[in-house]
Specification:
about 325 residues, alpha/beta, Rossmann fold, ten-stranded mixed β-sheet, 10 strands, about 25% helix, AB_hydrolase_fold
Length: about 325
Amino acid sequence: MIGVQSIVGVTLLLSSAFAAPQRQNGQTAQQRAMKIPQGVSAATDGSMILDTTVNINGLPIRYKVSGPAAMFKAASQVPGAQAGPDAQSAMGVNVLLHGDGGQSFFDFPNQAVQKNLMGVAVLAPDPNLFWGGGQGLQRTDGVAHAQAVNDLMKNELPKVMAFNQSQVYFMGVSGGSLMMSGFFLPAQMKNFPGTGILLSCGGMAPQVPFQDADNVMRNTKIHYQTTVNELTSLQGSIPQAIASNEKLAMTAGLTPQQIGAMQTVDNTPAGGHCAFDEQSFVSGVQLLANGYSNIMQPGASGQVQGINAPTVLTTVVGNENPTFGPEARQKRSVETL
């Protein structure tokens, strides 16, 4: 089998954040993505990447998982797989949900093992590759997509990978952050206690009833990372997400100090949408993925190389409304698969 990294001359799908759904040559983004072969390839740190698809609740869920070959199980067909069919391991995972159009799925910026977290990226089961379906702030399939991500991690990934199922962290990018904050956090995060979600360049208040809110607020690290020149629509929805989750934490009985330890926010970078390096979408997302452990994992310093701040871990208490400037869209070409 071959992986994306070994393909020459295949360009990847790009689309602007919240762009209108596009067809090229009569095909949807999902149909074009299907042309990119799946299989096994090498990660940037020498780990192995498995790119495969499973059917979950009637949805085609394509995902990538990266880790040492020994962590894979025989069912993965990864060369060097050694883990037994029921094995777990001490290594956790960081699950990334891409932005509209799928760019970060194909880039797989979290593929390198980072402080004992292996990388997972999941492709939205939507014709336009929008997490939650719909468009903009209207994510009409958010409930179904959130359930599919939960079921992937609980039921399907353990069939091919040995990992610590108590150490499942998440990272959303743009539209992926909308689905995570609007649907996954309130409906599914109760199933992943003691971990956290990094909501990058996106966020909105819960769109469905919050399940087991008190325990989720006590046990979930939430970090909001944005930029000064964020998209105008997100300049409104991100503060709403911050305020909603802070209020839930207060209702759960957390003190301001406890809230500040669990819920943090930063918008230091003077860049456009997702340009955390103040340069571009792709490099900005990669920078943030590189700094994931310094933001999300226990003992994190909050220092992210490339972000000019002593720490990005600023409490949300008193900082519910980040200071934004005029919207600046990053240049992103639209290519065909």
